[in-house]
Amino acid sequence: MEGLIMAAQLLLALTILVGLHEFGHFIFARIFGIRVNKFYIFFDFLFPLPNVLNFALWKKKKGDTEYGLGWFPLGGYVDIAGMIDETKDASQLATEPEPWEFRSKPAWQRLMVMLGGIIVNIILGVLIYSGVKYYWGDEDFTKQEVNKKGIFAYPLAESIGLKTGDKVISINGKDYKTFSDLRASITGENVTFEIKRDSQNLEIAVPNELINKIAQKAPFIEPILPFSILKVAKGMPAEEAGLREGDKIVSINGKPITFYQEIQPLIRKEANKKIELGIERNGTTMKIFPKVTSDSTIGFNPKILLNSTKMEYSLPEAIKVGSSEALAVIPQQINGFSRIFKGHISASNALSGPVGLSQMFGGYWDWERFWRLTGLLSMALAFMNALPIPALDGGHVLVLLYEMISGRKPSEKFMERTQQIGTFILLGLMAYVLFNDTIKLLF
């Protein structure tokens, strides 16, 4: 069931994003009087073979345009009259250009048509980010709150010299506001943490290659989380042993416990065994003996006692903050590609396919998480489509810029060949990420 929910969320997000992306091309074509033969969500053929398995789940003709829902759930397209794309080749454009065709329009108008999808995805991303800020706001731990107890260092953080209890004072000599700022800083290059450990001030350099291990979902740092028991699951060992809401776990098998992250490593070692749980209840200390399940749980939810800060925004504030965060995704994407080429992170860890993306949405429906991820994907889709790869919008834009600068229009045969090369590149990339997804899923 969780897998279906993940897939449904990804499918809905991509339907929204691709549908509006194609609408961007469609609306600019209409503005300039260019005929659009088809507007499809998903493909009504076996992509990339436009003449194989041609059928639609639904279609309706209105004016010159056929609107439809294809059967092949991968993207979507608009068939713009007089333009070489995944649905037609140069042989279909052998006649003289008609005034309502793409190829008969000035280069600047064709450029705007090609940029239409990217423009709409950026606008959509800004709107989603702003809407999320306005409706849900933000919740985070401030630097001051985190440094009351310090950070919890997972083994990966310990490998570069960080220790649990360290207090991060600054990043590259600059102050920061929230734990999210601290966590996000590790995606940069040549990062140094200035920390306070006991009475010492130290500098810890973050290796550029660390991002590769973090991309493999290896945990790095968290705030130390003091806690009590918020909820005990019915029928689970914790309830059967007598654990109650409001209890505080103070020891496991005689080892003192002061924060939440200490629990799982100890319980993991005791799967299918009884453990001694020291608890504090209303000022009294007692012991209970739950049996750990085979998947290393005893069945409770924690109440985190570290105070998070809720930030709410007026509509103008939400637009300002949301726009800033949305547009910041573009340089982040550029930085990510740069670090792939520099060898800091492998492409297999940096690129996610359908499985990896669906896992990001999670196994239950959370509208806040859905819209946050959809906003992120909208900005990422705008960036990816702007790459100067033939068959992507960026490839068409590059050719049109050449035409505008040189005054020479490439031949239809040249456009057909570049489209074929671009499609081959995209298919290779798709095969790579699908293979990569499968390997991650299996291993």
Provide an overview of this structure:
The chain is an alpha+beta fold. It folds into 3 domains: 14-113 and 385-442, no CATH class; 143-223, Pdz3 Domain; 227-304, Roll (Pdz3 Domain). 44% of the residues lie in helices and 20% in strands. It contains 14 helices and 17 strands. The chain has helices at residues 2-31, 107-135, 143-149, 155-158, 179-184, 210-214, 237-241, 263-268, 315-341, 347-350, 354-361, 367-385, 393-406, 412-442; strands at 36-43, 56-62, 65-70, 72-80, 138-140, 151-153, 167-171, 191-197, 200-206, 221-223, 227-232, 248-252, 255-256, 277-281, 284-288, 300-304, 309-311. It has a 4-stranded mixed beta sheet, covered by helices on one side. A 4-stranded antiparallel beta sheet has the order 13-12-14-15. Strand 12 (248-252) and strand 13 (255-256) form a beta hairpin. Helix 2 crosses helix 13. The longest helix is centred in the last third of the chain and has 31 residues, at 412-442. The radius of gyration is 27 Å and the shape is elongated. The mean pLDDT is 90.
Rg is 27 Å
Looking across the biggest beta sheet, what order are the strands in?
Answer: 2-3-1-4
Distance between the termini: 21 Å
**Proportion of residues in extended strands:** 15-25%
Overall pLDDT metric? 90
Instruction: Give a short account of the largest sheet.
Output: 4 strands, mixed
- Structural class, from helix and strand content? alpha+beta
Topology, number of strands:
17
